[in-house]
Structure formats: structure tokens, C-alpha cells
User: Which sequence fits this backbone?
């Protein structure tokens, strides 16, 4: 599958110039800055290793990616090999040491620059000088300026000025005729001074020849290497760069058939990108859908239908996504887009409105696939009830916290069978909620935390003062967020157990305005304040509080323990209803120790 050997850089550069070695289209643009280029050249001068390169044979039936030449090369031919690892290093060497045009790079402030690189001959031979300090970068006019461009510190704009200051142009290193002519020109300029000729001969032997003979280890992958192996290899070797996604590889594969998948996702007239360019209520949830997420869902859809017609088992692993054909994509992309929008609307019905409060973004993948498979059936109340129950079992059972590809398949196949009269899918059958989990749910980092807050909204929670339902408009415009019911400052001053008062049992969604009124006072105090200020009558306030599953009498007596136990029971009731199964173990020793009483 692969072989490894040391290859002279000079041979690789000639292959780049001839187009025999090119880049796969998924490789990012060249981004190295001036200092990194000079450091790389210095490493070569010192004969230090600069890391192995990895090439992939091009032309097989398995790997057929769109290709492009290196920056600085203008060839138009089919390559023999593609560079999987080493683009930045090879592009830097090719542009700085081989091309005759200025090197497009940038400075430490990321400002674009076009530079030529020179070697200070005397410094390059001085063992006390760091090699990187012997490498000089000059601007496109071959000058270095100071004092805001008013003073010229170095001018090598003509061969004579190069000779005069013994500055060797590095882009002649691999040009045998070019560096020979330069040496002769320099000797002639200095009238064949013996001391100068000795210096140049030493420079040629110790510096130029060493660079020309520099070798790098090259790992060569065979052209029949599977695409999933290419993706895995690239991820393993490209730890210092931008990771390669499945989408990048599929894009490169489709590009070989002249189809611009990236333009389809990002472009102005795109198809998929509308998933992130729809109404606010949909964009707020689907803005986090990645291109790879979309392709994974589409793969599930394609493979399920093939399996239903007698094909191979459903699968959506990396290799399956990479094997999606262009026809598959064209046939299903519109349908998949509509399914993601339907998923967003379904989640809004579950009172999940914004990406921040989405329990599992990964659960969008099987859910959207199910909407695509079900079509209009997904709107039937019997079907929607099962979808909702499966969804909440996944969230509250925290079933999507690990590797998910197998679960995607299990859920899509299982839910479709369940809807058609089969047994419960694995996620529904195996999910459970432990009562003591309520005590450890404290932040949005937990999917179950986000899910329970959505269930509180779904159960009919309204704002304490206005009585407004917290639908999408009020949720966003009124800056609804999660806050303590018994305020944090009050609980601390009173000495309540932080493990209880800072748990989800003591939190609920309210508007920013209401939270400011609540402040840090005891509940009895801030409730009276709300009434005195004329925001709401006592009767209505009690009714509004009840929608948050709060024991009103305990609140008005500042009886935290009774309030806490009763609300925990109410939350377990919500959870039980959503999951369609009884939450057990409400009276075991851990529950009594954690809550101070049974939750039966």
C-alpha cells in the first residue's frame, strides 16, 4: 500500500515545475509567513530534518480527486502524484529557492508581502552566526527600507549590487547554469581577487552543494489506496494544520466530475446553504449544521433506501459518506434540505429555539433523516408522538454523548420499524433517568440540563410578571435565560447546601427584566416587591409561578426544603411523561441522602 525512501529535494522541485507532483483540491492555500520560510531554509542549510513528506499516486479508480498546481507553478497537465503532507514546506522551498518570481508571503502581523530571499555569503560561512540570520528577505524591488520607506538599508536590485555586497539570490540554488553564471559574474566584478574567489569556492562547496544534495524522507501511497484511508492518513499526519473533513474529500471527488460542492454549500445560489439562510426561527437552530453533518444524514437516507430494497446493511461511517456518488447527492440534496428545516420546526415545538439550548447537535442527523424518510407522515400525530418520545429518550437518557455513527443507524432503522408497528428502538428501550442526576445538572454543558429547561417551557411556563408564554419571539426579544428561583446570593447568605440550590431543581427560564427585579432577595421579599410595584396581582403571580412547577406556599414561606422536594418531584414527572416511562428509584438511599427526603 505504501513505500518510503529518501529523495533529493531538487528532484521533487523539478517534478513540481513539470506538474508531475501537484496538490489535491482539498489542500488549503499556502499560508506560511516570512519567518517560517527563513527558518525552513536555515534547517536545510544545517542539514536538519524537516519532516517526512507523503505522496499519493494519482490515476487509480479508487482515488480520483481534482488537482491543482503549486503556488508559483502554471502547469496544466495531469499529475503522477498528489501531496498529502508537506504542502507548506514544499511550496515554501519551491517559491523561495526555485521560482524566479517574488515569493507571496506575509509578515508577523499577517500583512501580505512579496519577497525575494538572499544569502549573505559571509554570514552563511560564519559558524558563530545563526543560519537564519544569514538569510535576508528583500521587497519586490529588491530593497530593504527603514524610517517609513525614506531610507534604503540594502539595495540588491541589480546583479552588480548583488556582487558588491556578496548577496546570493536563493532562487538560483537549484539553477545550475544560473548560479554558475552568478559566480563568474561576481568573480569578474571583483576582478578575480584570489581571496574573494577562495570565499566563493568555499561558499559553493559548504553551502550551495549541501542545499542541492539535501534529501527528505518520502512516504508514497499507492494510487489504489481507499479514500477513507486517505482521509485517516491525512488527519494523522496533518496535526499542525487545518484538519481534513469528509466534506473536503467529497468536494474534491465531485470536482473531478466538474461539480462544485463547496459552491453548492457556500455560494450565493447554493442549495444546501439555505439551511443556514432561512427564517430566524430556523436559522437559530440549524446554523451549527456542518457540511459533513449534512452529507452524513444524506448517506443515511441513501443507504436506508438501498437496504429497504434488498441492498447492504445501513451504515454511515466515514467510508460510506466518502462513497456517496454525485448522483446520490443530486437526487437527495433538496429532499435532505427540506428535512433539516422540518427538524428545526419539530424542535421548536419541543421548545428548543436556539443553538445554544440544543441538547445534542448530533441528534439532528438521524432526526433529519427520519423526516426525509417519513415525508408527510411525520405530521401525523401518532408518528410525531413517537418521534418526540424517541427524541426525549435520547436527550434525557443522554444517549448521544459518545460515538454516534452506530446509534444513528440503530435509531433510523429502529424508529422506522417502530412507527410501522415494530418494537421500541434501542434508544427508547434502554434510556433511563436516575433521580439523583437532577443534583448534578448545573450548567448548559449537559444535554439533559438543556432538555429539562425545554420541557419546562413546553409544559406552559410563562414569565413571572407579564404572564407571556415563552414562544420563540418572546424567548429571543425578551432575552429569556436560566436563573435561580431562590436567588444565589440569598442561598449563600442563608447557608443552604450549594449542591441543592445550584442544581437544575432551583432554576427556571425567565426574562432578563424579571431577573433584575428578583435580584438577591428572599422569595417572599421579591414576590411582595413585584406585587407592590404593580407588575402583577398576587392571584396572577401565583398562577404564573405555578406554570414553573413551583410550590407557591413554600415559596411565600421561604421554605426551601419543601419547595425543593416538591419541584424535584414535578421535574421527574415531566421527565417521565416525555420519555414515556416511569422514573424509578425515587426512594433509594442515594435519593434520600441527596435531597433530604423521598421523591415518591
Assistant:
Amino acid at each position: 500500500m505504501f513505500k518510503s525512501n529518501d529523495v533529493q529535494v531538487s528532484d521533487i522541485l523539478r517534478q513540481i515545475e513539470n506538474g508531475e507532483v501537484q496538490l489535491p483540491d482539498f489542500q488549503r492555500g499556502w499560508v506560511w509567513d516570512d519567518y517560517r520560510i527563513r527558518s525552513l531554509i536555515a534547517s536545510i542549510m544545517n542539514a536538519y530534518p524537516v519532516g517526512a513528506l507523503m505522496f499519493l499516486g494519482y490515476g487509480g479508480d479508487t482515488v480520483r480527486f481534482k488537482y491543482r498546481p503549486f503556488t508559483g507553478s502554471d502547469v496544466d497537465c495531469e499529475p503522477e502524484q498528489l501531496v498529502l503532507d508537506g504542502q507548506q514546506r514544499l511550496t515554501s522551498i519551491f517559491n523561495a529557492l526555485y521560482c524566479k518570481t517574488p515569493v507571496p508571503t506575509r509578515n508577523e502581523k499577517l500583512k501580505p508581502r512579496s519577497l525575494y530571499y538572499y544569502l549573505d555569503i559571509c554570514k552563511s560561512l560564519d559558524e558563530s552566526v545563526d543560519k537564519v540570520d544569514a538569510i535576508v528577505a528583500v521587497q519586490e524591488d529588491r530593497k530593504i527600507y527603514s524610517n517609513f520607506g525614506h531610507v534604503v538599508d540594502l539595495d540588491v536590485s541589480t546583479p552588480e549590487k548583488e556582487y558588491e555586497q556578496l548577496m546570493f539570490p536563493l532562487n538560483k540554488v537549484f539553477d545550475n547554469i544560473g548560479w554558475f553564471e552568478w559566480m563568474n559574474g561576481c568573480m569578474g566584478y571583483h576582478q578575480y581577487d584570489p581571496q574573494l574567489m577562495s570565499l566563493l569556492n568555499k561558499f559553493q562547496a559548504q553551502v550551495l552543494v549541501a542545499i542541492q544534495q539535501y534529501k527528505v524522507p518520502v512516504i508514497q501511497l499507492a494510487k489504489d489506496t481507499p479514500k477513507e484511508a486517505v482521509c485517516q492518513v491525512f488527519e494523522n499526519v496533518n496535526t499542525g494544520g487545518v484538519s481534513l473533513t469528509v466534506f473536503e474529500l467529497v468536494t474534491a471527488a465531485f470536482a473531478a466530475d466538474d461539480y462544485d460542492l463547496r459552491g453548492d454549500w457556500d455560494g450565493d445560489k447554493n442549495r444546501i446553504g439555505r439551511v443556514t439562510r432561512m427564517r430566524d426561527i430556523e436559522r437559530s437552530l440549524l446554523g451549527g449544521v456542518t457540511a459533513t453533518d449534512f452529507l452524513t444524514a444524506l448517506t443515511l437516507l441513501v443507504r436506508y433506501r438501498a437496504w429497504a430494497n434488498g441492498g447492504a446493511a445501513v451504515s454511515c461511517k466515514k467510508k460510506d459518506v466518502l462513497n456517496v456518488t454525485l448522483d446520490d447527492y443530486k437526487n437527495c440534496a433538496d429532499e435532505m434540505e427540506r428535512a433539516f428545516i422540518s427538524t428545526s420546526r419539530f424542535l421548536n415545538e419541543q421548545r428548543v429555539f436556539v443553538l445554544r439550548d440544543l441538547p445534542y447537535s448530533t441528534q439532528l442527523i438521524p432526526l433529519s433523516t427520519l423526516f426525509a424518510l417519513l415525508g408527510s407522515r411525520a405530521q401525523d400525530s401518532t408518528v410525531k408522538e413517537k418521534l418526540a418520545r424517541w427524541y426525549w429518550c435520547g436527550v434525557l437518557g443522554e444517549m448521544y454523548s459518545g460515538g454516534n455513527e452506530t446509534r444513528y443507524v440503530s435509531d433510523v432503522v429502529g424508529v422506522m420499524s417502530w412507527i410501522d408497528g415494530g418494537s421500541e428502538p434501542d434508544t427508547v428501550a434502554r434510556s433511563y433517568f436516575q433521580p439523583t442526576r437532577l443534583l448534578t445538572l448545573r450548567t448548559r454543558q449537559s444535554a439533559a440540563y438543556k432538555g429539562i429547561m425545554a420541557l419546562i417551557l413546553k409544559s406552559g411556563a410563562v414569565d413571572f410578571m407579564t404572564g407571556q408564554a415563552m414562544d420563540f419571539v418572546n424567548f429571543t426579544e425578551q432575552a429569556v435565560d436560566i436563573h435561580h428561583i431562590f436567588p444565589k446570593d440569598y442561598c449563600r447568605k442563608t447557608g443552604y447546601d450549594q449542591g441543592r440550590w445550584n442544581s437544575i431543581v432551583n432554576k427556571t427560564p425567565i426574562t432578563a427584566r424579571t431577573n433584575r427585579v428578583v435580584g438577591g432577595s428572599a422569595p417572599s421579599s421579591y414576590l411582595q416587591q413585584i406585587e407592590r410595584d404593580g407588575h402583577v396581582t398576587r392571584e396572577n403571580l401565583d398562577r404564573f409561578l405555578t406554570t414553573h412547577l413551583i410550590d407557591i406556599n413554600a415559596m411565600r414561606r421561604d421554605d426551601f426544603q419543601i419547595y425543593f422536594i416538591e419541584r424535584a418531584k414535578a421535574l421527574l414527572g415531566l421527565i417521565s411523561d416525555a420519555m414515556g416511562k416511569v422514573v424509578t428509584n425515587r426512594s433509594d438511599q442515594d435519593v434520600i441522602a441527596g435531597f433530604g427526603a423521598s421523591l415518591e
In short: The chain has three domains: 2-217, 260-430, 437-595.
